[in-house]
Amino acid sequence: MTDSPITAQGPAAPAAAPQGEPILQVRNLVKHFPLTQGILFKKQIGAVKAVDGVSFDLYRGETLGIVGESGCGKSTVAKLLMNLEQATSGEVFYKGQDITRLSGRALKAVRRNIQMVFQDPYTSLNPRMTVGDIIGEPFDIHPEAAPKGDRRRRVRELLDVVGLNPEYINRYPHQFSGGQRQRIGIARGLALNPEIIICDEPVSALDVSVQAQVVNLMEKLQDEFGLSYVFIAHDLSIVRHISDRVGVMYLGRIAEIGSDAEIYEHPTHPYTQALLSAVPVPDPEAREHRERIILSGDVPSPANPPSGCRFRTRCWKAQDRCATETPLLAIPERFADSGTLAAHESACHFAEAVSY
Amino acid sequence: MTVIDETAGALAPAAPAAPLLDVRDLHVEFRTRDGVAKAVNGVNYSVNAGETLAVLGESGSGKSVTAQAIMGILDMPPGRITSGEILFHGKDMLTMSGEERRKIRGRKIAMIFQDALSALNPVLSVGYQLGEMFRVHQGMSRKQAKLKAIELMDRVRIPAAKERVNDYPHQFSGGMRQRIMIAMALALEPDLIIADEPTTALDVTVQAQVMDLLAELQREFTMGLILITHDLGVVADVADKIAVMYAGRIVETAPVHEIYRRPAHPYTKGLLQSIPRLDRKGQELYAIKGLPPNLTRIPSGCAFNPRCPMAQDVCRTDVPVLHQVGPGRGSACHFWKETLGD
């Protein structure tokens, strides 16, 4: 088994673990997309601040969930982590190496260890390639990962690992259902035996009865191969189920980050509180006991975000200070020594503990 | 308990107790390259004025096709209504002339679609599109229609409606566009609104706003509402009763509170169990095995049998009827007693 790339390297890290050394360190990551005017002589008239100063750590073997509404920059973060988009500034350290500065061969080597699973299993698989070619393509790009004669066997093994019949190797994507296609996408992500998989809304395009199957598969694979996941989604209940830690994003910044219990049971940021209260709960009785916060208005444009705290335009606690002073992502002073679950990083001047 | 059912309506035709909309044994097929896809296979449901019926199902369960048949916007061909009745105010719409149906569509029954951006015309201002309802149906002048459009936009709480009436759909956010869709459906004060996944494309915080608005307007106008969705959470918030669909059939109907407490069909039960819950974190999620069936090859007997943990031989041969399992509750399962029991 020593030659197989589909076995875990070394002992699997403990499942619930913000201990040990971070495998990925993200520091002040910024991505601005320029807005230009003019056809021949382009001049920049502004920028969409998609990601504006995001920092977090990802530890070995853990799942970090990132939640937020559309336009909050969560998918851009995913692309930046893979260096699929060039960061405007900031760093992403993978084992001490800043991958935003890498290119060519060095970048290719790093990408072997960081793979991605995409949202839409219908458009992320090439319809003209067979399943065998799709899952085997990573081996063409990284020929050192598997000798040529061995690749078909590896692909069959991968199909088996994700719960598909290895006999399907010569079929085309259209012959599969959505859930099966997502399994193919996951198999492709696993092919190079990566350490980190970045999942951008991996189950949101799937039917409810199939979502649970794919989530279970991802958890099983994590245990088996000691994978670290960055799990980006807007479905709060699925994120809670799979994540060890959760970061909540709003308009390009992290509003609050902490363990799943800290975020879901003791949120201190008003946005997190509103988001949690707005989630429809499939239990009419629990529903009636819960206070709902309905936010007014829509998310402002990231091309022209509010000054100070970005959430202040929709926040019921906003005061003058929120417009002038940007709140830092830190453990609020008043909870710092409280020893409660409210003591986690939250970017709000008026952070307040609520328990759900 | 006294049940006011169809027999009462049959004795005294056009009695006030007759439901607003009554779908009876509807069958819809589509001709495809792979054969005939049986999208709807005998659906029965009814909606009263002021009532919200949620139709819950996965993609391919026939929930949207049923709605399209009610609206009369089914693509025919390839679609074909093979049998059934759709009674609106006691009159079968399937036997009406095109002229008569057009009078109902939009005026008496309106529809809200999932994707507001593709349902609105991108090259016409929203004011023009809203006003079109009044110009076409009520023969208003352009000026009057525009004033009515502003009034409607106010009603669905679009800020600065007067200034925004000449804006185009792309200038509005997703939530606002969905409000415009709601405004358009409400324009002629219909008796029944069919909302097909109205909040699926929206973010949770905006979803809550839009659902609240819809529920409030429904109460105000005492309209009937058919809410088509796949989201068990949204249903719990607003519905009075639920019909769960699978492979073109209704497998369970119940008042909203009961279905969450004690589902009577293994499919509903499986769906509810597969939702991640706090007390089960770290454990494997319950997953319904297998995949929804191909509609050209629906399994014999109960369509859910290949995926059902309780399936027995009888499930593979006999199609279960909708058994009455309690007041206002039905389950199309041979083993509904066992399902309810544990």
TrEMBL record, chain A:
PROSITE patterns: ABC_TRANSPORTER_1, ABC_TRANSPORTER_2. Keywords: ATP-binding, Nucleotide-binding, Transport. It comes from the Bacteria. GO terms for molecular function: ATP binding. Residues 24-276 form the ABC transporter domain. CDD domains: ABC_NikE_OppD_transporters. NCBIfam families: oligo_HPY, PRK11308.1. Belongs to the ABC transporter superfamily. This is Dipeptide ABC transporter ATP-binding protein. The lineage of its organism: Bacteria, Bacillati, Actinomycetota, Actinomycetes, Kitasatosporales.
TrEMBL record, chain B:
It comes from the Bacteria. InterPro entries: AAA+_ATPase, ABC_Ni/Peptide_Import, ABC_transporter-like_ATP-bd, ABC_transporter-like_CS, Oligopep_ABC_C, P-loop_NTPase. Pfam families: ABC_tran, oligo_HPY. GO terms for molecular function: ATP binding. Its main location: membrane. It is a peripheral membrane protein. It is found in: Cell membrane. The keyword Nucleotide-binding applies. Keywords: ATP-binding, Cell membrane, Membrane, Nucleotide-binding, Transport. The keyword Magnesium does not apply. SUPFAM superfamilies: P-loop containing nucleoside triphosphate hydrolases (SSF52540). Residues 23-272 form the ABC transporter domain. Belongs to the ABC transporter superfamily. This is ABC transporter ATP-binding protein. It comes from Actinacidiphila acididurans. The lineage of its organism: Bacteria, Bacillati, Actinomycetota, Actinomycetes, Kitasatosporales.
